[in-house]
TrEMBL record:
Gene: phnL
Keywords assigned: ATP-binding, Lyase, Nucleotide-binding
Gene Ontology terms, MF aspect: lyase activity
Organism: Halomonas marinisediminis
InterPro entries assigned to the protein according to its UniProt record, in alphabetical order: AAA+_ATPase, ABC_transporter-like_ATP-bd, ABC_transporter-like_CS, CP_lyase_PhnL, P-loop_NTPase
Database matches in Pfam families: ABC_tran
The protein's name: Phosphonate C-P lyase system protein PhnL
UniProt entry tagged with the keyword ATP-binding: yes
Domain ABC transporter: 9-247
NCBIfam families per the UniProt record, alphabetical: CP_lyasePhnL
Family assignment from sequence similarity: Belongs to the ABC transporter superfamily.
SMART domains tied to this protein: AAA
Length: 249
């Protein structure tokens, strides 16, 4: 991968509609004319009421939902990449090397121990197994996951324990773009603090972060800007600078 540019991500006139095949092909429009830019080292936080399309935007940026109009671009020093028309194998490479995603819930794989779930993104990049294990254990310890759990599959872990495995897996590979969908939702205060630190460290190393945080304290401490999504998405290009309150323009 080559160097990142300013902005690193741009979203122009984005449109999303779902076709509901179970409802006679009815169309549900959830996003219209969304614009945003995101630079390296910056954390942009999406806000707005439930159902407005925050998670849908992250899923389009991670390739799990199709874009129905407009453009998504990543900008590198030697050119730009349009995410709207990428083949599946390109998404695989992009998710491995460029775009990380931390959702609220861990996708549990039966029989795979927690530490291996966390190591996997590094192994996919060819990092040596011993090195990957040390880095995974360091993160799990930092997130206060008891050592006795590291070698167990996380299927039976509590919600907060699973979420910490998920966070470790999401942050371990230091992706240049990180999508965070309520990563602190079921964490206690001490572990929320660790996640805030991980986000601040990611920003310091130049990662661009786009997140959803319902916890106002976390949001206020990590956000450089807020992007309030409004019905029908008349959202101005590049949201207003963040001044500690939602919707400041
Ligand atoms: N796969 C899908 N098929 C059909 N409709 C969907 C699909 N995914 C999301 N939607 C709809 O899109 C709208 C936006 O959902 P989304 O999850 O993005 O909202 P949100 O802003 O993240 O909400 P919340 O804050 O409650 O998580 C909702 O009306 C939802 O029902």
């Amino acid at each position: 991968m080559t160097s990142l540019t300013q902005p690193f991500l741009s979203v122009d006139a984005l449109h999303k509609a779902f076709v509901l095949h179970g409802q006679g092909g009815m169309t549900l429009e959830v996003m219209r004319d969304l614009h945003l830019t995101l630079s390296p080292g910056e954390c942009l936080v999406l806000s707005g009421p439930s159902g407005i399309g925050k998670s849908t935007l992250l899923k389009m940026l991670h390739g799990s939902y199709r874009v129905t109009g407009g453009a998504l671009h990543l900008h590198f020093e030697d050119g730009e990449l349009s995410l709207g028309d990428l083949p599946a194998h390109a998404w695989h490479t992009l998710r491995r090397d460029v775009i990380g995603y931390v959702s609220q819930f861990l996708r549990v794989i039966p029989r795979v121990p927690a530490v291996e779930v966390v190591m996997e993104p590094l192994l996919a990049r060819g990092v040596d197994t011993a090195d990957a294990r040390v880095r995974a254990e360091t993160l799990l310890a930092r997130l206060n996951l008891p050592e006795r759990l590291w070698r167990l599959p996380p299927g039976t872990f509590s919600g907060g324990e699973q979420q910490r495995v998920n966070i470790a897996r999401g942050f371990i590979a230091e992706h240049p773009l990180l999508l965070l969908d309520e990563p602190t939702a079921s964490l206690d205060a001490a572990n929320r603090e660790v996640v805030i630190e991980l986000i601040q460290e990611a920003k310091a190393r130049g990662a661009a972060l786009l997140g959803i945080f319902h916890d106002e304290e976390v949001r206020d401490r990590v956000a450089d800007r807020l992007l309030p999504l409004t019905p029908h998405m008349g959202v101005a290009l590049g949201a207003a600078p963040f001044a500690g309150k939602e919707g400041v323009s």
